[in-house]
C-alpha cells in the first residue's frame, strides 16, 4: 500500500527542498528539515517571493511519518536561511550576514563521537556561485538541539556547496559527500572528504567522476555504504550546454571498493526525457539487500518515482510512481529513510496547482511487498 501524509502545508507559503537539508530516523521517530518562505505565482521556475525572508523549519514524526509536528530549526542560523541564499534578495542572505560577522561561522572543535546512538549531522551552504562557503551542524539528542554552524574547509576549490550525505565509519571517522564548484567557478563537481579526528579537520579524499564540461553540472550526491569499503554514490547531472535537448539531465551511479579512494562509473539508473528536467537522487538500502533510488520527475505529468535494483546497482527495474501531481515541475528534491519493517518514508515538496502553495509531504511505501 502507498499512502501520502502531509508534513507542512500553509496557504500563501512556499515550503521546499528537503534534499538540501536532511532526514534522519531512530526506528519510527523521524526528523526532517526543510525551508519555508512566501509564495509568489510564476509561470516557470520556483514560485517564491525573493523579497521576503526564508526560514528553516524542522518536522518530527513519532509514528513512522503518519503525523508530524513542525517548529523552527533549533540551531543557530542568525535569522537567515540555510542553503537558500539563491532564493532571497542579497540583503536577506546568510552570505551577507557572514560578510559582516565572519566570526559567526565557528571553527570545528572536534571531539564528536559519530557513533553516539542519537547522533545526526546536517550540512549547509550560503549560495551557489564562486565563493560559496559551507558548514555543518551536529546533534547528539535526536535533533532536539544542534551545535554549529561549524566551518567546512574550501579544499582548494572555487566554492563548496554542501548538502547532507555522510557515512559514520567509527567514533572519530566520518566520510562526507559534498559538491564543489568547478575550476571555472560554475557548479558543480562531486567529491568526498573524511574526518579522522572527530570533526576537527577534514581531508580531501577524491573526486567522483570527471569535471563536467562548460556549463554542465554534477551535484547533490546521495550515497550508500554496502560494507567492506564498498560505496555507491548517485549524482544529479544536467547538461546546461544544451538546455533544450531531450535527455539533457540524468542520474548517474558510481562505485568505490576502496573506501572512497577511487571511483568507477557503474550505471545510469534514471534519464529524464523533457528539456529542463533535473532532480536529485535519494538512495536507500532495503533489509533484503536490494537498493531503492527515489527522485522527483519533472517530466509531464510530474511525479515522485522510485527505481529498485536487486544487484547492488548494476541494473534497475522500471520506475514505480509514488505520487502523481496535477501541478508544475516546481517539486521533488526527495529524502528517504527506511523503517524496521522495510517501509520507505519518502519526503519531497509538491504542488497540486501551479497557482497554489508549495508544501511538504511524505509517501509511505514498501518495495518488499511489491517484490514478493
User: Which range best describes the helical content: under 10%, 10-25%, 25-40%, 40-55%, 55-70% or over 70%?
Assistant: under 10%
Helical segment count: 2
How many individual β-strands? 24
Q: Which descriptor suits the 3D outline?
A: globular
User: Strand content of the residues, in percent?
Assistant: 35-45%
Q: State the oligomer.
A: single chain
Give Rg in angstroms: 19 Å
Catalogue the unreliable spans.
Answer: none
In N-to-C order, the SSE pattern is EEEEEEHEEEEEEEEEEEEEEEEEEH
Mean pLDDT: 95
Describe what this molecule looks like in 3D.
- The protein has helices spanning 94-100, 367-371; strands spanning 3-8, 13-16, 22-26, 29-38, 55-61, 69-72, 120-125, 134-139, 147-151, 166-168, 174-181, 187-195, 203-207, 217-227, 230-238, 249-256, 264-272, 281-285, 291-297, 303-309, 320-324, 332-338, 344-350, 359-365.
- A hairpin with a 2-residue loop joins β14 (217-227) and β15.
- Strands 2, 3, 4, 5 and 6 form a 5-stranded antiparallel β-sheet that branches.
- The chain contains 2 helices and 24 strands.
- Helix content is 3%, strand content 43%.
